[in-house]
Structures are given as C-alpha cells and as structure tokens.
Design a protein that fits this description.
Blueprint: E1 22-26, E2 36-43, E3 51-56, H1 67-76, E4 80-85, H2 102-116, E5 121-126, H3 129-135, E6 144-150, H4 177-180, H5 186-195, H6 199-206, H7 209-221, H8 226-232, H9 237-248, E7 258-261, E8 265-268, H10 270-284, E9 293-298, H11 306-315, E10 323-326, H12 338-346
Parallel strand pairs: 3-4, 3-5, 5-6, 6-9, 9-10
Antiparallel strand pairs: 1-2, 2-4, 7-8
Protein name: AB hydrolase-1 domain-containing protein
GO molecular function: epoxide hydrolase activity
Pfam families: Abhydrolase_1
C-alpha cells in the first residue's frame, strides 16, 4: 500500500485496509487545507451497493479499530460500500499541526462526504466519533438513513456517577493522563487502553502507578501487535499533543469548551455542540424522519452509564429497538463486539418505525 502522507505509521499491518481499497483525499479548505486524509473505500460486490456504511473513529484510535466489524460485513456477502477515514493526526493520514478536537475533524469529514457524494448512509460512531460524525452532517442530515452508536455521546455529560474526571480512579482519572505521561509514551497509553478490552486488568494496572507507566513505555516501542498501530501513529509529538487535547477536554464532553491553541489561538466549540444537539432529534427523531438507531455499549465506561443512554433514548426513541449493553466490556466495545455490531448494521429495520 502506497503511503502518501507524513504519518509516523510507516508499517501498517496487512489487514489495515482491504486490498485495493486505500484512498487519499487532499482536504481543499479550512485549517487543514492541503493535508492528505487517508480513507478506506471498499465495495463488497461489483454490482451497485444497497447502501453505504460510514465508520467514524474517535481518540486515541484510527480506522483500524473497526477491522473486526468491517471484516464481518465483508464476509456477510451483503452489497455494501464501506468507507472508513483516518482523521488528521491519526492512522495513515497526515500529521496534525495544531491541537485538533471534534469540530475540526467534523469540518474535514464533511468535505470528504461531499467529495464522495455519500448517500443512504448507515453512520457508525464511537467515542469522539459521535460528535465528529454527527457534526459533519450539519446541513445535510438527510444523507443518513441509520445510526449505530458505540460508547459515545453528543449530549452534556451528566454529573452523576462516573465521569472522565473520576474514572477509572478518582485519584488518577483519564482526563489527567496527558499531564502525567511524557509525549513519547502517549502511543503506549493508546495501545494499552485499546488492547485491554477487559477493563479489570487495566484498573488493577492503574492502581500500581510505577508498573502502569512502565507498561505504557514498553507499549510505545514494541512492534508486532495490533496495539503497535495505535502506538506508532503517535510517534510524533504533534500527533501526541493533538490526541492529548481530546483527553484533556473529556470532563467537558458535550458541554462545549474553549482552549487556546499555540498556532490558531482560541478555539471554541460551544456553537458546534448546540447545533448538533438541536439538529439530531429534530432530523432523526420522532419529529423528523425517525430513522432506525442501534446502540452497543461497553458498560464499564462513563459513556455507557444509564443517564447517558437515557439521553440517547429521549432524543432517538428507536434506540430501544436494538440496544445492547455489555457488562464485562469497557469503552472500546468495537474491539470485542465487531460481529454483534455488524449484525445490527445488516439488520433490515426500515419498516419498524414507531
């Protein structure tokens, strides 16, 4: 596979992308104008696809996190067009040159959607991919026909229970990890949290700070594992810092926030969240087109607590038709439940509108 970007991920594994499906998009406008964005564009059958499945990843991931679900869809034989981009600063796309968050990635993704003229879309979103993916459709919500939600939110994170400023441990919450770990080990953090699908070993690891930091360092340099993809993509300080910015903002998830970037000054996404929180139920809920919605949530995670799921149910009641909660699974539900997620994507629920 030809790598047309300056990504630090120079040796992607053979299953990173289906053969012949690697594509590159030069972003025409905005803060990332001129950058090369990598995306997978795979058609499962030579005849016209029935619909398009667009996967939108979060942080600290890349398109590779959807490999199990992607492969299950391909093996199903269904006529699909599968599109999976890597955001700038992730995977095989160009490196970030400022501290990017959801509003910036959504602007880039919107340009790709228009460039490919994607229609009849099943939108699959995880983590920050929720606001990125849904936010990218501002002004063109009619392109999405179905939504699959995986441990994400676009709503203000409720104050009850676990949050990213008290989880996985009150004395070591996820939101402070960027301040604890050197930039050079950030890839090790990504590899560890993504590969440890069972949350219990990770929390035991977090309880032993010295051992945890050594594991992050080791994961930052070791080759030959799936986690190597998630580690190597952050072997540039620019990508690490951009990824860390997302983590620093997790306590404000869904509320909107302001921060100052060294290159572009004050960044503010309050209006971005206000727009998508209004547009989502108005266009996709009962007062709009009432599209089919599926949810797969790893329960050991703030994005899967009952109050967050209730926010989704209030906005999109059809979520109750296909809602799955996995008590022994953590935030990265797509890493262990790819086949179940694929089954939701493939299910014909178009006639089940309430």
């Amino acid at each position: 596979m030809r790598i047309a970007s300056n990504t630090p991920l120079r040796q992607p594994p053979h299953d990173y992308c289906p053969a012949g499906a690697d594509r590159w998009f030069q972003i025409p406008d905005g803060l990332d104008a001129g950058k090369q964005l990598f995306y997978i564009d795979h058609q499962t059958r030579p005849d016209s696809p029935d619909r398009t499945v667009l996967f939108v990843h979060g942080n600290p991931e890349c398109s590779y996190t959807y490999r199990r679900c992607r492969d299950a869809l391909i093996e199903s034989g269904a006529a699909l067009r599968i599109v999976i981009p890597d955001h700038i600063g992730f995977g095989l796309s160009d490196q970030a040159d400022f501290e990017m968050v959801d509003v910036h990635h959504a602007a880039n993704l919107a340009q790709l959607i228009r460039h490919l003229d994607l229609q009849d879309i099943t939108l699959v979103v995880h983590d920050w991919g929720g606001p990125i993916g849904i936010g990218s459709f501002a002004g063109m919500m009619d392109r999405v026909e179905r939504l699959v939600v995986l441990n994400t939110t676009v709503f203000p994170m409720p104050p009850d229970g676990i949050r990213y400023n008290n989880w996985p441990a009150r004395w070591m919450p996820w939101s402070v990890f960027p301040r604890l770990m050197p930039d050079a080990t950030w890839g090790g953090v990504a590899a560890t949290v993504l590969e440890d699908a069972d949350p219990q070993p990770f929390i035991r690891l977090a309880a032993r700070s010295a051992r945890m930091q050594w594991r992050f360092v080791r994961r930052a340099i070791e080759p030959g594992t799936a986690g190597h993809v998630f580690s190597e993509q952050f072997r540039s300080r620019a990508n690490a810092r951009s990824s860390q910015r997302n983590v620093l903002q997790t306590p404000c998830w869904g509320h909107g926030y302001r921060y100052t970037d060294a290159r572009h000054g004050v960044q503010d996404n309050h209006a971005f969240y206000a727009t998508l929180q209004q547009a989502l139920p108005a266009n996709w809920g009962p007062t709009g087109r009432n599209i089919p919605v599926s949810g797969h949530f790893g329960a050991w995670d703030p994005c899967a607590k009952p109050s967050v799921i209730q926010q989704w149910r209030d906005a999109l009641p059809r979520l109750d038709e296909d809602l799955h909660l996995y008590p022994e699974t953590g935030h990265f539900v797509e890493e262990s439940k790819g086949e179940a997620i694929a089954a939701s994507i493939l299910a014909d629920r178009s006639s089940e509108a309430l």
